[in-house]
Design brief:
With 709 residues, this protein is an alpha+beta fold. It has 10 helices and 40 strands. The strands form 9 sheets. The chain has an 8-stranded mixed beta sheet, with helices on both faces. Strands 4, 5, 6, 7 and 8 form a 5-stranded antiparallel beta sheet that branches. Strands 9-10-11-12 form a 4-stranded antiparallel beta sheet, with no helix packed on it.
């Protein structure tokens, strides 16, 4: 990156009280500067990047280990929490969230050998407990109780992975719910842990051999001198033999040296085919394979160098390839391993008008999960591709993948919607018979809610779909508080699902809205690509148009509108605040990316270059910098009141984004800008229920205070 730097450091200012020509404030909302946030030092730091002067007045807040930064964080967090605790609705909201979230619930069971595995949440217990039954009717035994792994609750379970015989268990533990994890092994016959301990398991999903003698996994170094943004380039595929120290694990595939590339490994159920996956962002992947039965020592390409995604499932003597090659909404090919050349692939399931999200083999059938207009549909087909049946679903909502085995008929799936709490169904793949296996009963009458799916034009005329949920007993009113949330990136689909947050908002007379923005996967790969890299501005335009549509159709007015998003959705919120400060009165921005000029230098930033572009490249910088929220905050603008939500152990999106943007908004805007920092928490927050309830209560109380006083 060509730079000519100008460093003239000056003494900084407090979050300044600035004036502009605002709309009249809502009655009951205090918007004065007589209670300013803690002081923040401001630098006169400007760099010329690709011939563009770029100001960075809060560069010093990037260094979290600096004592000055630590003191600033503590002061900001104390300031925010003191004021959040005093909000008038806060305690009542927390109590209501407790009723909705502190419940008894159970996951669908899956079995390996004769052992059944599942989780159960108990009312009054902070974390779900992992259970084991030896036989379907066996006695329930505690397998892992995460509540007892640490005195402060900071140790989390990041997945359990039994071998096929149900004899051994690999499980991952993480501190502070961060991505970084360690693998441990347990002998399920004795209940004792083995001496095997594998560090560097951040991206590891153990792929067991059929005999349970070992597993393949992705390993990352734990050397603290390696920047987190460089770690993926050091990822190796290794094989661990049970009973041997991890230091003896053999390297099956060396590191690529490319930090923007993810590496994955899979093994066929019969142990013959070892697959190596190289994923280039969220738009293409390469697949290599080894025939272990034939004694292959090198990986051979199955499909490499094409601009498409390939997921391969091996069963019996065939590969089933789920791909968007030549089909933005995906299709399925059958591949004979004896003739694996691309030209010999057989089209099994053609592209449809719905988006084919995934493929499973359960009960000797293909089970295909579709999104039809952003809600779930499931189709069962024979292994030859012939149609068998649609799996009946209760309505417009989201169904999980099936929990089952490829050679067994019985399977389970969960379903929820905006108006239906999670239900688990048992189904027979052979007959289609389906029955309700478990239902979560919550203290809420969802018949009072109505769900609409509307369409509105974005800035360029593209029609965008949006789910709008409101109370049936309340007429449309521009005085209703509305909460608009979105994501718009990485091919992530926003589909209907039950939400305690939405219930609380609706019970306060509000409207809850979720648009299907470009950048997501709801309408296939073309929809995703229309919201990434040089097209990222489309996502922000879609979201702004959603806000206007809610107002124009009488659901709310701008003074009653709150916006919310996390991670890439936090970038969405930040960009919307900066580009359209008049659209919303309040915003909650969680674990976000906001300094898009320097994002690649922190956290897992380099892995997102395929999605956002590389600011080191002048061609990419030309479209990244204009929307980078941190760099376009203007003093004197009345931005929405903002609650910034950060996590102290976020090793995915560096919290420097939250710190720098909060300082900018505090300096520029008259409205409140508070920074709340979650302790012992990673990118997904803490896994302790009381912390989740507290965070949600603070967020909803803040937003409602500003849009529904």
């Amino acid at each position: 990156m060509a730079r000519s730097s100008l460093f003239a450091v000056t003494v900084a200012l407090l979050g300044a009280c600035t004036e502009s020509a605002p709309p009249p404030p809502l009655a009951g909302v205090r918007e004065t500067c007589d209670d300013p946030p803690p002081a923040t030092r401001r630098q006169d730091l400007v760099e010329t990047i690709h011939d563009t002067p770029v100001a960075d007045p809060y560069r010093w807040l990037e260094v979290e280990s600096d004592p000055e930064v630590k003191a600033w964080m503590a002061a900001q967090d104390d300031y925010a929490r003191e004021r959040l605790a005093a909000l008038p609705r806060r305690d009542a909201i927390a109590a209501r969230l407790g009723e909705l979230l502190d419940i008894d619930a159970m996951s669908a069971p899956y079995h390996r050998g004769g052992n059944y595995f599942y989780t159960r949440r108990h009312k009054g217990v902070q974390k779900p407990i992992y259970y084991l039954r030896r036989g379907e009717q066996g006695r329930e035994e505690v397998l892992i109780d995460p509540n007892k792994l640490s005195s402060d609750g900071s140790v989390a379970v990041h997945g359990i992975f039994p071998d096929f015989a149900g004899r051994l268990l690999a499980y991952k533990l993480s501190r502070n719910n961060a991505d970084a994890s360690t693998i441990y092994l347990r002998d399920l016959a004795t209940g004792d842990d083995l001496p095997d301990v594998i560090e560097g398991a951040r991206y590891a999903t153990p792929a067991w051999t059929p005999d349970g003698s070992g597993f393949y996994y992705v390993w990352l170094p734990t050397d603290p001198s390696i920047p987190p943004s460089e770690l993926p380039g050091h990822a190796e595929v290794r094989f661990h033999r049970v009973g041997e120290p991890a230091s003896k694990d053999s390297i099956v595939a060396p590191a690529t040296g490319d930090p923007s590339r993810f590496v994955g490994v899979g093994l066929s159920r019969d142990g013959r085919w070892l697959f190596l996956h190289h994923q280039h962002g969220w738009t293409s992947s390469d697949v290599y394979l080894r025939d272990l039965h034939a004694g292959d020592t090198e990986f051979k390409p199955l499909v490499v160098g094409r601009r498409a995604i390939y997921d391969v499932t091996a069963w019996r003597d065939r590969f089933y390839v789920h791909t968007n090659e030549g089909a933005p909404r995906y299709r399925v090919f059958e591949v004979d391993p004896r003739n694996p050349a691309r030209e010999d692939w057989k089209l099994l399931v053609p592209e449809a008008d719905a988006t084919l999200e995934g493929l499973q083999i359960v009960g000797e059938r293909l089970v295909l999960a579709y999104l039809r207009d952003a809600h779930s549909a499931v189709v069962v087909r024979g292994l030859d591709g012939s149609f068998v049946r649609d799996l009946p679903l209760p309505g417009l909502g989201s169904a999980s993948g099936l929990v089952g085995n490829p050679d067994e008929d019985r399977a389970y799936f969960s379903f929820s919607s905006f108006t239906e709490p999670s239900q688990i169904f048992e189904t027979s793949i052979a007959t289609g018979a389906t029955r309700l296996w478990q239902r979560i009963d919550l203290p809420v009458d969802t018949s009072r809610f109505v769900v609409e799916q509307i369409r509105y034009p974005s800035k360029d005329g593209t029609p965008i779909s949006m789910f709008v949920v409101r109370r049936r007993d309340l007429p449309l009113s521009a005085d209703a508080p509305a909460l608009l949330t979105g994501y718009g990136g990485f091919s992530v689909s926003m589909t209907p699902g039950f939400s305690a947050r939405a219930v609380v908002w609706l019970e306060h007379g509000g409207v809850f809205a979720v648009p299907n923005l470009r950048g997501g996967g709801e309408y296939g790969e073309d929809w995703h690509r229309a919201g990434m890299r040089e097209h990222k501005q489309n996502v922000f335009d879609d979201f702004a148009a959603a806000a206007r549509a809610l107002v124009e159709r009488g659901y709310t007015r701008h003074e009653r509108l709150a916006i919310m998003g996390g991670s890439n959705g936090g970038l969405l919120v930040g960009a919307t605040m900066v580009q359209h400060p008049e659209l919303a009165r309040a915003a909650a921005c969680a674990v976000p990316l906001l300094d898009m000029v320097r994002y690649t230098q922190f956290g897992a930033g380099k892995t997102w270059i395929p999605e956002y572009g590389d600011p080191e490249d002048p061609r990419d910088f030309a479209y990244i910098y204009p929307y980078s929220p941190y760099h376009h905050v203007t003093a004197g603008t009345r931005y929405p009141a903002m609650l910034m939500l950060a996590a102290d152990s976020d090793d995915r999106v560096d919290p420097m984004h939250a710190r720098k943007f909060t300082a900018q908004i505090q300096h520029a805007s008259k409205r409140p800008a508070w920074l709340r920092i979650e302790s012992n928490a990673g990118h997904g927050g803490a896994d302790l229920l009381h912390q989740t309830i507290a965070r949600e209560a603070d967020t909803l109380a803040f937003l409602l205070h500003h849009v529904a006083p």
